[in-house]
Each structure stands twice: as structure tokens, then as C-alpha cells.
Design goal:
This protein has two domains: 40 residues, no CATH class; 249 residues, Adenoviral Proteinase, Chain. The protein has twelve helices and seven strands. The strands form two sheets. It has a five-stranded mixed β-sheet, with helices on both faces. A two-stranded antiparallel sheet has the order 1-2. A hairpin with a 4-residue loop joins strand 5 and strand 6. The N and C termini lie far apart (100 Å). Keywords: Hydrolase, Protease, Thiol protease. GO terms for molecular function: deSUMOylase activity. InterPro entries: Papain-like_cys_pep_sf, Peptidase_C48_C. Pfam families: Peptidase_C48.
Amino acid sequence: MLDNSEKKARFTSPSMIDLRAEYASNEEKVRARRNSDTLNREQWLEKKLEIAQKMLNGPRPFQAWSPSLDDLRLRQRSKDNIIDQRLRPRRLPLPSSLPPEDELKVDSLFKQSGVVSKFAREQVSDKDLVRLMPGSWLNDEIINFYGALILGRSDDSKENGDNAIVNGVASPKKSKILNVHYFTTFFWQKLTRDGYEKGRLAKWTKKVDLFSKDIVLIPVNHNNTHWTAAAINFRQKRIESYDSMFLDRSAVFKVLRNYLDAEHCNKKKAPFDFTGWEDYVLKDTPQQENGYDCGVFTCQFLESLSRGEETFNFSQDDIPYLRRRMVWEIGHSRLRTDP
């Protein structure tokens, strides 16, 4: 069958014959047109020149936009601003004063005599409260009372689930107040003067598991000349120092690391694992412009940290308002929730 098939003429469909004929005729037409172009080269050139002249005289084509270097920089800066806003939401500015009725209440608190307010184990008298007037240095009583308010708010939030404004941004999704522990101003004095063992600092946390807290807040008095805020941040694995004069506080990190290790050995019977921990200083820490507002800065650092803030929305210009705000808060034994 194969041999016979080779001898027979192969079958070709009519459609294939037609296609081939059409292809051959097209080739002849193209060849003829090429010959015609070759024979009439001058006419062909005249026609092409006429077409080119019409294009030159016709409307200009739309020019594609090509961004300049300034345009590209502006576009990139806009993208950076959007990203920065998402990472660090813009803060609401602090007001310049309290509501009128609260301002009157502050004035009346300054006129009281004797004990003005009590909270937990702390109390503030008229002689202490006057230190919140402009130009005065805060004492232990004011700072410890304010620290007690911070600690009390943290304990209350664990019970009723209250939320706080974070980073000064009004949002329906508010982060919860952190689980904090506050050491009074006398803790740092005992730690630096007597040490962990001699100062019997293990008793200070007899009823508290320090390592279950989100953050430990510590006001630091530097030789009765300057207040700063320090923190042991378990959430971020950081030993933190916030100084409104931005001085060298490397000694603070060393002392707190030694304390943390001693406390862990005492309570957990093993050295503290510092893997992943860092000594942290915020570069844009608000700075004071005088020699007496450090205590107010310290209180505001501690209050902001207790709400999980990473930065601060106040400056030297806000201190007069914050002093009167603190008077109101001490007089009412609670921290305000408005910005």
C-alpha cells in the first residue's frame, strides 16, 4: 500500500490550489508595483515630499509629559509624607489653657491651705502645690503624687478596660493604657546610695511581679539639681532615659541594668537575660529652655509613656498650660482624658 501510494498522484484540495494561485497573483502584483516604483522614482519622491510637507504644516502631535527633576522630588516627598503620617500620626496641638470653669478651679486650689488633695498613700499640701506655679522647681511630693495618679489609672484600666488617647490623636480605636509599675522618687536614691542588697530593695516589689509589667516608670533625681525620667520597657526590650537637657545619662543605663539583674536573681533565681535589649535615648526628646521646668517635663514623660507613646507632643511653650493642668489633676485626684 505504501509503494502504491508513492506512485499515485497526491490529493490536493481545491482550497489549497486557490490559496496558492492567490498567493502567486499577489506576488506578481507586488513585483509589478516595485517595478513601477523603480521606473517612476521621481514621481514617488515627489509624492513622499508632498506627504511630508502636509505633516509639517499640519497640527503638532501631542507632546508626551516628561517630569523634571523637581517634579520627581516633589512626588517622592509627597509619598514620604503619606508614609510618615501613617507611621507617626499627626498630633493634635495642646490647648493654651483649660476650659474657663477649670481655670477658675485651679485658681481656687492655689488659695486653699493645708492638705489640698490625697490619693493612695500620697498627699499634697498648699506648700507643695505652690511649686506648680511658673518658675518653681517641683519637689518629691508633687512628682510622687502624679506618679500615684499614673499608677492608679493603670490599675483601674485593668479592671474596667478603659482606653486612652495615643499620641494625642483622636481615634475611635484607642490603645489601652499600659500595665505599669511606678517607683517613687526615693527608689533611685536608695538604689544609688545603698545598692540593691543594703537598700533592701527586694522588699519594694514583694507584692509585685515586676517582670509581668509592660513598663516600669522611674523618676530620677540627679544630686538635687535636675529631674529626668527613666523606664524599663519590657514590651520594647529597652532601658530608656528621657532628659529635657539631653545630657549624658550612661550611668542611668548601667544602674538600671544592675538592678534588673539583681531583681531577677532575687525573684526568679537566675540572672536576667539581656539578649536583644538596648539602651534607648529618644533623639527629639522635648528640651527645656530654663533651669526649673525639668520636674514638669519628667512628669509628662512618665504620663505619656504610661499610655504607650513613642514620642511626645509637648514643648517648652506648653509648660505653662501643663502646670495648671497638673494642678487641676492633683486637686481632683485623677488625670484628664482630653489632650
